[in-house]
Design goal:
heterodimer; A: 142 residues; alpha+beta; Thiol Ester Dehydrase, Chain A; 5-stranded antiparallel beta sheet; 5 strands; B: 168 residues; 6-stranded antiparallel beta sheet; 6 strands; 14% helix
């Protein structure tokens, strides 16, 4: 994917989607990578003993997926200024998690070109489980 | 004395708003950057390969989005990540706790800020920014918002994290 430029972006545009599907192995990798070892994410018996149906995907991992969505979109010359989400719904392993973003606003300030977005993860039925927002900078063509 | 009779927010909690907790030292190491990037599924080589990162103008392997270093583990310590679920807790009548969400703000521009790269040592300082009470699908809840500021070894503020904790 080539570099995206500020001039190419319009309010209302959707950025390229990122599809994830977590294996239980990925949840263990994330536990190690993030330092979050809460057992509801890798020990099914433990998860069920807390009343959950089964294992659930870490909210912070879905947030990090949104970080990847943005990092890959802004390219080498763009930068993430701010991103994050609320953890509103649970996702299970071995189910698609679609990461999406829509441009809300664009403006230039102090020689930098800013783009604000709504970002979120959604389940296969379209339910948003991690709604959030982001601010990135993109290069201009001149 | 304007406090509603059924509020769970005490004067002690109100007094804690804005007060910084003890600083936590976070190490940003190559292996942790790679592990974090791998666990997310990142494909950009700047998160794995030092030469690739340097070729793109970074000081070293880049910390992937959301990775602000690893707290130093000490046996017997809480191991909590500052600003997330860690930090000061208060006695409230709710048993259950949820991480409501996290926002990361970055300050990558020199001279005031910088990118976060392997080899950095980051000092994290957390404070409670506010308490709020609400009633939602989970019933009555206490929402605590926290702000953590990350300063690197050169005294530059490189990131802030805004966390929301829900007790219900």
């Amino acid at each position: 994917m080539g570099q995206v430029y500020f001039e190419d972006v319009n309010e209302g545009d959707e950025i390229p989607q990122l599809k994830k599907n977590c294996s239980t192995q990925q949840l263990v990798l994330w536990a190690a990578g993030s330092g979050d070892f809460y057992q509801i994410h890798y020990d099914k018996d433990f998860a069920q003993s807390t009343g959950l149906k089964g294992l659930i995907v870490h909210g912070a991992l879905k947030n990090a997926f949104l970080g990847q969505l943005l990092h890959d979109w802004v390219g080498e010359q763009g930068q993430i200024r701010r991103f994050g989400c609320s953890y509103r719904g649970m996702d299970e392993p071995k189910q698609d998690i679609l990461c999406r973003g829509v441009v809300k606003k664009k403006y230039s300030d102090g020689g930098k070109h800013y783009v604000e977005l709504d970002v979120w993860t959604e389940k296969p039925d379209g339910k948003k489980t991690s709604p959030g927002t982001a601010i990135v900078t993109l290069p201009g063509k001149n | 004395m304007t406090q509603a009779p059924d509020s769970v927010i005490t004067d002690e909690m109100r007094a804690a708003i804005g007060v910084e907790g003890p600083p936590a030292v976070m190490e940003v190491e190559k292996t942790n950057c790679r592990m974090y990037a791998r666990s997310v599924g990142h494909t950009d080589p700047i998160f794995y390969d030092e030469a690739a990162a340097k070729a793109r103008g970074y000081r070293g392997i880049v910390a992937p989005p959301g990775f602000l270093g690893t707290p130093i583990f000490r046996p017997g310590g809480s191991g909590a990540v500052p600003g997330e679920l860690g930090g000061r807790t208060f006695s409230v009548p709710y048993k259950r706790i949820l991480n409501g969400g996290t926002d990361y703000e970055y300050f990558p521009d020199p001279p005031d800020g910088d990118a976060i790269c392997a080899g950095d040592t980051i000092t994290a300082r957390s404070k409670i920014s506010g308490f709020e009470e609400a009633t939602g699908s989970l019933g009555p809840m206490l929402i605590t918002t926290r702000e953590t500021t990350y300063t690197n070894q050169h005294g530059k503020v490189v990131a802030k994290m805004y966390g929301t904790l829900i007790q219900y």
